[in-house]
Amino acid sequence: MASGDIKVSILDCGAMTADLTWLLLKPGRSIRPRQQRDQPTEWATVPTHCVLVETPDGTILWDTSCPRDWEERWGPTGLQDFFPYEKVSDDEYLDSRLKQVGVGVNQIDYVVLSHLHFDHCGNADLFKDSSAKLICSDKEKDFAFGFDGLFTGAHLKTDYENLNWDTVSGDTEFLPGVTLLQTPGHTPGTMSMQVDLPDTGTMIFTSDAVYMGESYGPPTTPAAIVNDMGQFYSSVEKIRGIAERTDATVVFGHDADQIHQLKTVSNGGSYT
Q1: Carries keyword Zinc (predicted)?
Q2: Fewest CB atoms less than 10 Å from the CB: which of 10, 67, 73, 272?
Q3: Which residues lie closer than 8 Å to 172 by C-beta, 6 or more apart?
């Protein structure tokens, strides 16, 4: 890879399904008017993805999606009944996607977690015995290890407690062309990732700082899973400001329409 070249591959990893209210608190959609009080709950497809960023200075895997043993692992939490990872084929699990792009776990230098929720950290243990460094926000690590018991909300210690974590603090140019942005609200330490590509231009991967296009707006629409609503709104506007300044392509965390419009591994595409 030539100096300055960066390649981004979006690894689409199938989808969970869930009550739309978890993702979108929007009048007329997830919040029903009285005229629709008798209509059934609207369940939505919730796609999950990871991002492989190959640079001359190192290879990053952004997030790790859901594990193959999701139903068993999530059993103590009950989350498997609210976010079943049931729209996934064998070739869509993360380990299969990495094989498809010809990248082994020992070829990844950094596994950067946007946050430590079960659907983003679920395969972090694939890298337990590899040379990859596991990275999250310092505030995320403090929260994820700081509560009593096995789980709280969508933080499940089984995913991450036996792994070694390095942390970043504040907005950080992690590698040349790759900046980690602090975008808390969804969780105390949620991060987004900005990648500046020579051909495509800037891409911002929001993770769950922004679930979907309808969340982004404007106006910004919140969700049921938000740790701090004030931080959530501030982070969305931070992302919007950077995106407007850089004319960025903004890739949302779980947008069922957008994922099909992007170049992904399943359609043979990547970004440079």
Answers
A1: yes
A2: 272
A3: 179, 180
Task: Indicate the pTM of the whole model.
Answer: 0.96
Residue 75: C-alpha distances to residues 50, 83, 129, 221 (Å): 24, 12, 26, 30
CA 121, 64, 66, 154 dihedral sign is positive
- Quote the CA–CA distance of 199 and 18 in Å, as a whole number: 36
Quick one: 95 exposed, middle or buried, by C-beta within 10 A (0-12, 13-18, 19+)?
Answer: middle
C-alpha dihedral, 112 to 113 to 119 to 121, nearest 10° = 80
Residue 194 CA to residue 187 CA, distance in Å, equals: 19
Structure tokens at 43: 């369940």
